[in-house]
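Why show two proteins at once? Because comparison is the fastest way to build intuition. When a single record is shown, students tend to memorize it. When two are placed side by side, the eye starts asking what differs. So, the first record is below.
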Amino acid sequence: MDVITPFVLGVLRFVVVIGILILVHELGHFFVARWTGVGVERFSIGFGPVLLRWRGKETEYVLSAIPMGGYVKMVGEENPLEGGGGPMVDASRAFTGKPLWARFLIVFAGPAMNLVLAVVIFAVVLATLGRAVWPAVVGKVAETSPAATAGLRTGDTIVAVNGQSVAYWEDLDRAIARSDGRPLELRMRRGEAELTAVVTPRLRTLPDPVFREPREVWDLGAGPQLLPVITSVGPGSPAERAGLKPGDVVTTVAGQPLYTHEDLLEAIRTRPGQSFALTVERDGQPLPLTVTPEPVTERPPTGEEIVVGKIQAGLAPKAVKFEPYSPLTAIWQGGVKTWDMTVLTTKGLWKLVTRQLDLSNIGGPIQIAAETTRQANEGLVSVAVFVAIISVNLAVLNLLPIPMLDGGHLLFFLIEAILGRPLSLRKREVAQQVGFVLLMMIMVFALYNDLTRLNVFKFLR
């Protein structure tokens, strides 16, 4: 029962997440079709055997057993007006009888609604919870860095930069980014004393956090002090066996002090299968523990397979607090985050196509379900943000120029606009068949990757 319950919960979470994304997507097609005067014969969530069915004035609404998609069947959609052997339809209500702009909007509305959903989720999270901010307290200071040369020490609190007050570390980051290498005057508090230091940012080349591509940034050689807090512990995990509990603040690893949760992640990743000591603060008291990270084979976005350590625990910076945005600013920032995620997803797809990323990075329903469960353990906000990210991914994928996807239909409309007439029915049918085969191949490959991550094939050998 202990095994079945988590599995069932995982399946239910997956169905709910996918169901929301599909519903929003198909509602986009549905509402714009009705707005442009196109009749809708069937609105379906899912495929396969019908679970529920009810009929409205014009439309049949269906809930089917396989929650891997949906469709809106419109009047005349499968019976083009230029000919065909299907039944006669009302030309004024037929999809194919509408002008090109109307058909374009109907098809584009599905992916567009997924982007709108992402904006709404990000905006609600930013308006209610807010953005993560942390005090401008100096953590680790790198040796021979500009910060070390200027005399900054761990524990110093930056209160002003060039006379402008500093509330959070992000204020200091912005000042450094805008400095263009010009010296900055820092006013800081050290214990009871207030000191002034002049520091000149250096230009460094660092890998970006996603694709590890080099980028140039201005840097002081000092970061914020953000001790890691354990937010969740997986059942039967190395973290649980070590005695870690949610709320523990990790202060040292192998006798060395920690400054950020990234330091702890790096210590865990670089010690697969190796036991090491760490100290946590629990109820205000230090507690020594020993943890042994589980070796996990991982393929980075670029590069060969590597073995890393994992303890299956959630981590977050201790000092982080959240600063809510005003409603209008939250909407704007929600749009900005959705745009950034769209660009990131598009870039990732291009890297997959050009083989800059290994195809093992493609994931399917099992990976989505596993990640949904992991985010659920982190809390409702994490699940909401995950839904927004997947919604953006769904929008971008559906806009790919592949027949059977919305992007394929939009490509047909573009060709029609250029030629002044639609492609022949036969050519569209062939393209749809090719698109269907291609999609099935991608889905099978994604499922294969999911099963490989679970070591299913190794188990069967």
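Second record. Ask yourself what differs from the first in the token line.
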Amino acid sequence: MTYSLVARDDEQWGVAVQSKFLAVGSIVPWAEPHVGAIATQAWANPRYGPEGLALLREGLTAAEVVERLVAGDESRVERQLGVVDAHGEAASYTGAGCMEWAGHRTSDGYAAQGNILVGRETVDALAETFESTTGSLAERLIACLAAAQAAGGDRRGQQSASLLVVERGGGYAKLSDVVVDLRVDDHFRPIEELERLYALHDRLFGETPPEQWLPLEGAVADEVRGRLARLGYESLDAWAGVANLEGRVDGNASIDPVVLTALREEAP
């Protein structure tokens, strides 16, 4: 009842998953920077997550981790598993007892897998979309879910989706390793809702290249001061802190276009 993609892109590792199952993000995805990422599904074994990451930390390859985990599991015929290791090597396993259609596809940097699907087209869409898209790992993973759903998706329908991306020091305030951790636990269009949540996340925590920032001078400076005054703020910093955009403000010499757009929306 689930399809997922586990992937590595440069210094990031991540998992995206959709399922006709409540709160799939609480069970399937696991990831640790410079260690690897794992998806455990079908009749999921939640122990595959922490135990698999521990094996990856020891230096085992993705294929060795898959082999070790399923070998010690008496219910392995009903399990499905995808692993990408620290080097981007990938491996998957689909037990013979997984409900049709069930299967997987792997290549350098990703493992795609699914069960109770309309057909193999869903897994192919995951793989081919990952191979052909650009952008951040989070953006690519969401695009893969959308393509997989368009190709047929889960035979039982949709209910929940999740996106997890990690990078050493790549998260909040550069002190967290969690770049993105978004979950849609129960929704009739979970991938679309995940896309909406990610857009909000990127607005608050994304980064605009410095060369794209606008000089805070002339008409732009006058506009910013006027809009802040209408909202009752004396400085951009003060407003940005309330709007949760403080991470996108850096001094008074220039302004992030995302911040300017948000200010215009709040003070038309």
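One difference worth noting in the second protein: Helices lie at 48-57, 62-71, 121-132, 137-150, 190-205, 218-231, 236-242, 257-266.
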